[in-house]
From TrEMBL:
It is a peripheral membrane protein. This is ABC-type sugar transport system, ATPase component. It comes from the Bacteria. It comes from Sphaerochaeta pleomorpha (strain ATCC BAA-1885 / DSM 22778 / Grapes). GO terms for biological process: monosaccharide transmembrane transport.
Amino acid sequence: MEDQNNIVTMEHITKTFPGVKALDDVSFHLSCGEVMALLGENGAGKSTLMKILSGVYTRDSGSIKLFGTEVEGDLTPKKAQKLGVAIIHQELNMCAHLTVAENIFLGKEIVKGRILSNQEMNRQAKEVLDSLRIDIDPQTIVGTLAVSKQQMVEIAKALQAEAKVLIMDEPTSALTSKEINQLFSLIRELKAKGCAIVYISHRLEELQHIVDRVTIMRDGKFIIENDFHSMSMDKIISYMVGREIKEKFPRVTTEKKEKILSIKNLNAGKMVRNVSLDVYKGEILGIAGLMGAGRTETTRAIFGVDKKESGEIELEGKQVSISCPDDAIKEGIVLVPEDRKRDGLCTKLSVRENVALPNLDVICNKLGVINRKREREIADKAISDLHIKLPTREVNASSLSGGNQQKVVVGKWLARDSKVVMFDEPTRGIDVAAKVEIYHLMNQLKQQGIGVLFVSSEMPEIMGVSDRIIVMCDGRVTGELMRSEATQEKILAYATKFENKFENENL
């Protein structure tokens, strides 16, 4: 399907990692001024293909043409950047101790004489940030920024390089609705200027706003390339997973049982303010709200990651003291965290070791010696139950795709006799089929009488999966809805119900 308008032509690309063929005879084409959606399940090879195009990985075989010229030898990140290719990775690649401007100009610093010109870098960084309509001080240390702001800095870094081919790998996964709209406006502007954009996303509903064509991959192979608007969403999903997904939000009905977890007047920092909530056995309690509402902070306070200032936690009718995650785990309260790479995984350890780490009390004898057979059994069960794609349980967690890493984080808790499982954005950055598997897992826990607390920023998901929904805003619980009465309008009304800070004052 090579065309003279193609500015990127990749033909017969193969790439093998130890034990797995990541790309098998894949071809890919991209034209000037178009947005191409690159879709597929986790592990389909999307990110690997784009890392080859951006010089992060080298291809085993195949050819690459950029702007009609054959690329001789291997691409490197610097060579790809000089040719006009920039990539925004799914996992943020920032130097947390440097400023925003220093990150944007990393590797291409502005020097006057022999001295770094911080003033000029700050000025140019501000210009790029202003073009994104994001109010971030270029002199701010990146590590102090929220994840959503760090994502925008990553985008600004690519724009500063004046890329002609821009690869966006899950760019909206950590952005607010307002920031997503700003990003889409920017994409349209770049497209009008002739920039070609590869857009990788598992949020299929957002594609209709920006995408021209779609390339679908499955199991490391090219499946189809077509105009986006000529394909239905159901057809796209069936090409991605190789089968029809009949239920987007599978549910099971269980009898409402007794209360298992009760949080009373919990306070922790600025983002958890007098929070009270109850979770019942065999129930999925959804927590909805906008970015910064305090949902993640609430789960962290319950789990003992963040220090509690006041409040009570009752488990099965008895008050428990939780001052650290180890206390919570021993009581049977566990957390699947929002940031899997930072908080949920040891990426340099194997999948077996990651699953074993929080379960040492389960797999060790009284002398502290690990039962290797038991260790392998719980790892294999997690891999089987969650359909984790990997060549062997001994591979490092860092070698897995983002979705499969998320499954490993979830799988760690399958071996425990947990009473309450908290999921914080468990489907962020994973594909449609993997999402359904996570929902099935929640339903399994529900059927076992376990209380499930589920944080999600996607309203269709929170309404489709939850039995009951509480909504947070400004660190407080502002509303509660049963699944049968929940609508996006009602959730949004509660999610924007900011406290009137002056109502008790005499004005």
